[in-house]
Amino acid sequence: MIKRLLAAACVAVTAAFATVGAEADELVIGARADPAIDPHFQWLTTNVAYSQHIFDPLVKKDANAQWVPGLAVEWKPIDDLTWEMSLRKGVKFHDGTPFTADDVIFSFDRLSNVPNNPNPYGANVRSVKNLEKIDDHTIRIHTTQTDPLMLGPLSNIFIVSKKAAENATTDDFRKGTAAIGTGPYKFVEYTPGAELVLERNENYWGEVEPWSEVTFKIIPNDQARVAALLSGDIDVIDFPPPTEVKAIENHADTLVFKRPSDRVIYLIPDVGREDSPFVTGKDGSKIRNPMMDRRVRLAMSLALNRDAIVSRVMDGLAEKANQFVPKGFIGFNPELPELEYDPEKARALLAEAGYPDGFGLTIHCSNNRYVNDAKLCEVVGQMLTRIGLDMKVETMPKNVFFPKIATYKKVHFSFILVGWGNASTGTAGPFLTSIFHTPDRERRMGHGNRAHFHDPSYDEMTEAAVRELDPDLREKKMQNAMAYIVDKMIGIPLHTQFVVIGTRKGLVATPRVDETTTAMSIRRQD
Amino acid sequence: MTVFIIRRLMQSTVVMLVMSMIVFIGVYMIGNPVDILINPEATAEEIREVVRSLGLDQPIWYQYGRFLYNALQGDLGESFVFGSPAIDLIFQRMPATLELASAAMLIAVVIGIPLGMWAGLRPTALTSRGIMAGSILGFSLPTFWIGLMMILFFGVTLNWLPTGGRGETGELIGIEFSFLTLDGLSHLLLPATNLALFKLALVIRLTRAGTAEVIHQDYIKFAKAKGLSKQRILFVHVLKNILIPVITVLGLEFGNIVAFAVVTETVFAWPGMGKLIIDSMEVLDRPVIVAYLIVVVFMFILINLVVDILYSVLDPRVRLREVR
Asked: Is the pTM higher than 0.90?
C-alpha cells in the first residue's frame, strides 16, 4: 500500500512536470479465459484470439472477417478441387528457423492428432483431402469437394514450427518449449489461472507491434474485470457486462469501443415434426404442431418488438436483425425489408391459420451462453403471450441446454433461442448449409437442423451457392437463399449483439467482428 | 493413537470411493461434455469421433472401472478442457488457495479471539455491544457483495489497493507465495479480509459465549482465590477451555474455505482452485470435478483428524479411541 501511494505520488509529480507523459510500452489486458497456448487444442474463440499473438495462419482475417494474406501471400484455384498457395518468403520462427512448406504440412497433420481434444480444429478444414508440397514456398491444397469457402476457416489454422512441435504435447506448449510461432509476439511465461506474458517479436514479417510487453490477466468474473479497469490496474478489458458499459463510459479515465459482432441471435421453431414435444392446445391436450404453418411463424415474428428488445433488454448494445448474417458479411441481402412489429396483424394471421385463441408452447433457452439469454427468453415469452399464445419459459445452464438440442441425438424442445457466429468464413455459407439444409451425412450438411426443415429446392440453392467459385455469383446466390429462408420464416431473427471493449483513456481499440480481443487491435491514441 | 489414525485413514478410503462413484454418475447423467465444448458447426461424424477418442461412448460402468483402475495407479485422468492431468491442475492452484485461506484464518483468530474474550468479560459494556452488533453484520452480509464494495471503495475510489490477482510472488520451498513481497501482500489484504469476515464473526461469538460461561465456573473462582494473576487466569485457564469449540468449528471452516473459497476467488480474480471447480462444472469437465472432490474429501478427513488430535492435547480428559 505504501509502495502504491509512493508510486501514485511519483506519477503525480512526473505528470506535473512533463506535458506529454512518456508512457511505458507495456499493455495489460484483462481477459475472460485461460489460453490453451497449443493452437491445435480446443477450438474456442478465446483460444483463437490468444493464438493470433504467437502464431500466424495462412490466411488472416481483418476486423470485418474478410480474408487478407497471412503466411500465404496469394492463392488461386488450379481446378475445382485444387488450390495453389504461394507462401511468404523470408519469414523466421521465434527461434530463428526459417518458415517453409514443411511447417505448413506438419501443422495440418497435427490438427487431428492432438490427444484428448474435445473440440479439434480439424473441423475447419473438413473438405481438405491433403496438402502437397511443390517447393519450399508453394503448396497445393487438394479438397474432397468444390469448397471455395474453405479459405475462410484457414484463419483458424495456425502454423507451428515443425522443429519445435514435433512430438510436443499440449503441456509442452503451455510450458513454452513448443510455443514457437511466427506471430507478432513471443511467448514468455504462462501461470495457469493468473496470467500470460508475451514480448514483442522485433523481427516480425508484418508491422512490428508498438507494445514491448503484453500481459493477459485472467479475470473471468465480469464485475472484477470492470473494477480492475476502473481502478487503473489494467489497460483493456473485453466483454464487460452490458449493465456496466455505462459506468465505463461515464468514468473519467476510461473509454468504450463497440461494434456489431458476427453473431445473430435467433429463434428456431420446430417446423417439421407434426407431434412436437412442447406444443399443446390451450387446454393442454396434444395437437398438430401449428408452427408448421408459415402464417403462425409470421405471426410470431410480428409479435416481437425488436426495438424494445434492443433498447431495454440489451441496453442498446445490439442491432435489430432481419436476416441471419449482419451487414457487411457476404450473403447479407440488402433488399430484405425490416421485420415489423404489429401484434394486431399477428393476431389476425393466427386466426386465419385456425388458431384464434392461440396454443400452448414452451420456449427453452440457455442462461449463461449468450448476452442476456435468460432475459431475452422471458421477454420473447411475454411478447408471444400478448398475441394469445400460452407461453411457458424454461431456462437452464448451457451444460444442460446444449446436450438437449444435439441434433445427432434428438432435439428435445419445440422452440429455442440460439445464436450463430458467421466469422469463420465471413459469409452466410456455413449458416445456410448447416442450420436449414436437410441433414445429409455424405455432404456434411444440415447437422444443425433443429427446425426439422426439409425443402429440396432450398437444399439445391444453398449447395449451388457454396460451391460457386466466382465470388460475385456466390454472393448473389447466397443472398437469394437468404431471402428464401427469411420469407419462409424458418428461423426468426432477433438481433446482432455488440462486441464491446473497454480501455483506459489514451488508447484506441478496434473491436473485431469475430469477438477476439488482441493486443494487435489496441493502439495508442495519436 | 496410531491404530486410531490408521483406522481413520482406512475409513476415508471408503468415503472417497463412494463419493467418486456418486460424482462420476452424477456428472455422467447431466450430459456429454463434447456437446458443450465442440463448435456448433461440427457434423455428427466429427462429434462421434471426438466422443470415441475421449472414451465417452463406453458404458458408464466401464468408464468408471477404467477410472478406478487408473486412479489406483495415481492417475485421476486428464482434463477435457486443459488437456493436462487433472491432479496437476489442482495442485498448481492449491498453494494460492491455501495461502488465502490461511491468511483469512489468521485474521479471524488474531482479531476474533481477543474481541470475543473482551465481549465475554464485559457483557454489558458499550464496546462489547458494538463488537456483537458488528459480528452480526459479519455473517449476515453476503461475501460477494462485501467483496465488490471493498473493491469499489479501496480499489476504485481510494485507489489504495489493487482490485485483483496475486501480484508479485516470492518463492519459498519451491512454491510461489504472495505474502513474501510487499506487492503480493497488498494483493492479499483485501481478499483475505473479505474471506475472513464470516469466520471472524463466528469466532467472536463462539469465544464470547465460551468466556461468559467459563468465567463463572468454580475453578476460575478457585484460581482467583488462590491469588493467580489475572493474565494467567485469562490466558491459561479461560483460553484453554474455550478453545475446544472454537477449534472444532475453525477446523471445519478451514476445510470449507479451502474447498469453496470460490466466491472470493472469483470476485478478486485470485487464481486459486475454487474457481477451477466452478469452471469445470460449467463444461462438465468430469476428470477435474471428480479429482477435485476426492482431494477435498481427503482434506476434510485430514482436518477432522487433526482436530481430534488437538482435542486430546487441549483437554486431557479426551482420549482418542474407537467408539464402540
From this structure: no
